[in-house]
Write a structure and sequence with these properties.
single chain, mainly alpha
Length: about 90
Amino acid sequence: MIDTHKQCGIPIEKRHKKKINSKKLQRKVAKELKKRSISTKAQEALKDEFETSKKEKAENDKQLKEDKKAYIRKIKVQKAENKHRGR
């Protein structure tokens, strides 16, 4: 029944796959082969854990840097106020 039913509508054009340059393909294959693959789930879990800790450390470092910058700014403003206090 489905085979005999014809659909009306917009005809879909098939896309032609773009031919990849052979040298480019060889470089891509060599790069994939050179890349070390993770062999076990434990190694993958360790890698994921390392990446998350790396991101957390980066966020903490950024926060500490901003806090230090704010502290130094606060001290500079306070020193400037103290200079003008005696006038």
